[in-house]
Amino acid sequence: MNLPAPPTRPAADAPRDLVGIGIGPFNLSLAALAHPLTELDTAFYDQRPAFGWHPGLLLEGTTLQVPFLADLVTLADPASPWTFLNHLKARDRLYPFYFAERFHIRRAEYDAYCRWVADHLPGLQFGHRVDAVHWNPERDLFEIEFTRLGLDGQTEAPGRTYARTVALGIGTEPYVPEPLKPLTEDPGVPVVHAADYLDHRATILAAEHVTVVGTGQSGAEIFLDLLRHRPPGREKLHWLGRTEAFAPMEYSKLGLEHFTPDYTRYFHGLAEPVRDRLVTQQWQLHKGISADTIAAIHDELYHRTLGGGWPDTVLTPGVRVRTAGRIATTKVELHLEHIQQDTRSRLTTDAVVLATGYRERPLDHVLAGLDPYLRRDSRDRPRVDAHFRLVLDPSVTGTVYVQNAGTHTHGVGAPDLGLAAWRSATILNHLTGKETYPLPRRTAFTTFGLDQPPLIPPARQAPVLTPLADHR
User: What share of the chain has pLDDT > 70, as a percent?
Assistant: First the structure.
C-alpha cells in the first residue's frame, strides 16, 4: 500500500500548528485529511492504548445506519488514500465487497477500517492523557499538558506541548439515569450500560429475567440478541423506555436531508430558543429504531407463536424508571411510572441493560484553563461559531475547534458520521485560509428557510449538433 510520506517534523520545541485531543472517528477524520497537507505540523492524543469504536455494541450482524461512503474522508476527498475502499483494496477484499452489494456495512467492519487508518496514519499518540489546556499569553500559544500512560493505564511520565490550534474530539460518554446510578456502582448487581453489553453478555444471558431499558436502536438490538438466545416460552424478557412508541427512525430521502451541510448551516443561524426546541422535537431523526430491526424483532416474536401461546416477553413504551433498588444480592426492583396512564408499578428482575444512550462529554475539565476566555450562551454552554470554533475572548489569538460537541449550535447532525469528512474539511479550509478541500455549495433539495439556496453554477450546455448538408 503506497501512502504519502509524513511531513517533516520541525524542531522539538517548535509549536505545532494543530493538536487534536481525542481520537475517535471525527478527529481521526481530521487527522486523515490533514495528513497530505505538508505545511501543517499536527499531533493527536488519546488516553486509550489503541483505537476502538463502541466495542461493547459490535453485535453480530449489526450495521451502520449510514452508507459506507460516510467514511472518514470520501465525502470531502474521494481520492484520499484513507478511504474505506482503499482499506478494502489493502486487505484484498474489493471483489468480495463488490459481490456482497452492501451499501450499509457491518459495524465491526467500520471499526476494523478505522483501526486500519489509526495503525497506519502517523502523528497519532495513543496512551497520552491530556490533563489541561491553557492559553499562554506570553507565547500567544495554547499550552497542552499531558501524561504518558503505560499499557496498563498507569502513569509513566508527564509532558507538555504548544500549539496554535486545538481540535477537541473527546466524544460522548454513556448516560445513566439518576435513579439507576447507585445500581451501576455496585459490582454485585448485574446492571450494565449498553456500551459494555458484550463484556457482560454471558452474565446477562445466564440471568433468569432480564430487563432492557431504552427504546432506541441499541435497546432494540440488545433485546433482539437476548430474544434469539432464550428458549421459546421461557424468554422472561422486559423491554421498556420513555418514548411513547417503539418508533421507526426517520429514514425518508428528504428526511435524511437534515444531515446535510445545508441544514447544519440553516440550524446554526436560528435563534437559540428555537434551536433548543428543535433538538428535543427531532429525536426520531436519530433516536428511533431502524425498520429492519423492528421487523426482525416482530418476526422473531411471531415465530414463537407458531406452536400456540405467546412468548414470555413484555414490551412497554411510555414508561420511566422513577427509582430503583436492590433486593437481597441478586435482584433489582424497578419502580415504574406510565407516562400516559399516570400509573405506577414495580418490576423485579435479575439483570438490567441500560440502553439509555450517550451524552456529549463535558468540556469543563479539559478546558478549565480556558474558562476565563470562554463565551457562553444563556444556558451556560460554550458558544460555537459556524466554523466549529469555540467563541473565545478576542485576546486569545489561537483557535479551538470542536467535534461532536455542538448539538445545541449545529443540530442533530453533530454526531452523525455522514458529516465527519465535511466538518473536518471545513475546519482545515478555515485553518489554512484557503479552499484546501473544495466543498459543495449545495447539498439538499430542501430549502429550509425562506431565503433562497446558494446559487449553483449552471452545467455546461452540450453543443447543438446540426446535420451535415446532404451532398448526394
Answer: 93
Residue 40: how many other CB atoms lie within 10 Å: 18
**Which residues have a Cβ under 8 Å from the Cβ of 471 and sit 6 or more positions away?**
none
Would you state the pLDDT for residue 464? 39
DSSP state of 389: B
In whole angstroms, what is the distance from residue 315 CA to residue 296 CA? 15
Q: How many CB atoms lie within 10 A of CB 315?
A: 15
Say which amino acid occupies 36.
P
Structure confidence at residue 452 as a pLDDT band (50, 70, 90):
low
How many helices and strands in the chain, by DSSP H and E? 12, 18
Nearest to 249 by CA among 63, 36, 82, 58: 63
Type of residue found at 200 = H
Residue pLDDT, tens place only, 96-154:
999 999 999 999 999 999 999 999 999 999 999 999 999 999 999 999 999 999 988 88
As beta bridge partners, residue 354 has: 193, 213
At 313, which helix (H) or strand (E)? Answer: strand 313-316
Do the Cβ atoms of 220 and 289 come closer than 8 Å?
Answer: yes
pLDDT at 332: 93
User: Cβ atoms within 10 A of the Cβ of 371, count?
Assistant: 11
List the grid coordinates of 70: 460516510
Rounded to the nearest 10 degrees, the angle between the axes of helix 217-228 and helix 197-206 is 40
Cβ neighbours of 154 (radius 10 Å): 7
Distance CA 19, CA 27 (A): 10
Question: Does residue 133 contact residue 166 with C-beta atoms inside 8 Å?
Answer: yes
Q: Using CA atoms, how far apart are residues 312 and 332, in angstroms rounded to an integer?
A: 19
Q: Cβ distance 1 to 116 under 8 Å?
A: no
Measured at the CA of 233, the angle between CA 230 and CA 235, to 5 degrees, comes to: 35
Candidate from 241-255, 281-295, 452-466 with smallest mean pLDDT:
452-466
Neighbours of 346 (CB within 10 A): 11
pLDDT at 463: 37
According to DSSP, the residues that pair with 141 across neighbouring strands are: 136
The answer to whether the Cα torsion of 190, 195, 201, 206 is positive or negative is positive
Contact 44, 23 (CB under 8 A): yes
Q: Report the chain's mean pLDDT, rounded to a whole number.
A: 91
Q: Which amino acid is at 266?
A: Y
Residue 319 cell numbers, joined = 414508561
C-alpha dihedral sign at 331, 332, 337, 338: negative
Q: Pairing relation of β-strands 358-360 and 172-174?
A: antiparallel
